[in-house]
Every structure is written in C-alpha cells, then in structure tokens.
Amino acid sequence: VAKTEEVRPPAAKPVVIKSNSMSVTAEDVALTGSFAGNKGQLPAPIDKGTVISTFGEHPHAEFQNIKIKNNGIDIISSPGAQAKVVFQGEVSSVMFIANLNYVVIVRHGDYLTVYSNLENVSVKKGDKVKIKQSLGTVSVPQGESRSRLHFELWQGTIVLNPASWIKN
Fold first, then answer.
1. What is the pLDDT of residues 24-80, one digit of tens each?
2. Alpha-carbon distance 74 to 110, whole Å?
3. pTM to 2 decimals?
4. How many whole angstroms separate alpha carbon 151 and alpha carbon 149?
5. How does DSSP classify residue 158?
6. Is 38 buried (19+), middle (13-18) or exposed (0-12) by CB count in 10 A?
C-alpha cells in the first residue's frame, strides 16, 4: 500500500492593515478614501444649527480647576430638527443610553459618525444610508427650548474634531 502525502494549498499571505484601520472589504477601502477626500466638505448633521460646545478640553463654566472633555461638538437647532447623516454609509449601531437618549453610529469605511440625543430614530442596524438622509428627530433637553445634537467623528479608535470636516 503506497502512502500518499497530504497536499495542502499554499498559505495565503496575510493582509497588512494599519493598526487603526477597520476596513475589511474593497468597498470599505473605497468608502474610506472617499470619506477622507471630503474633509471640510461634509454637510452639517443638522439643518440651521449653531455649534454651542466645541471639540476638545475646556474649563468648566462654574468650577475652577475642572476641565470638561468633549469628544465631539454640540449643535442646537429648532425643536423637531432632524439629525442627518453626513456621508453615505451603513448604520452599525442604534442604542438607547441614559442621558444621551438614542444614539446612532454610522460606518463610512474606517470612519464612524456618532449622532447622540435623538428622541426617536428612523433607521436600524444594517441600513445603508445616503448623504443627508434623516436618522431621527433630535431631542429637546428638559428645561431647554431648542433641540441639541451631540455629534462625534472617529477614525478607528482615534477621535477627530468634526468641525474641521463639515463645510461652513
């Protein structure tokens, strides 16, 4: 009885991915490049809004020696305002978090946009969304008269200043 050798296909070369990259498909890579190429040209995530809290670390308004870190920007607008996706992508998460209300995260290749303080949502996980599509109604915080959207932008695990990506 002749002994046969097991034939194995050659091992596939590992794909080198930057440590901060989340892209897994060619479509993700293309979307990443397209998103990055629109820096400074993205539409605002809310119509007729005014930024009231900017990105970064700021001194607390009332308490000396206390700093507040904002991972995004806060935008106020009229009651009933709609949060709108700033670029095409896929809804990766919809969740409810105490004090933040509904939060929608949209993936644009390696980039994520986060829309917090939604009263209700009109999308679900896995939905493909188009630029300027409504994600839901922005909530009006108790005791206030205007809606307030918290908006963040991430590239992998790195938080970015969303104001530098939005067209003025």
1. 566 666 667 789 989 999 999 999 999 998 888 888 778 888 888 889 999 999 999
2. 23
3. 0.81
4. 6
5. E
6. middle
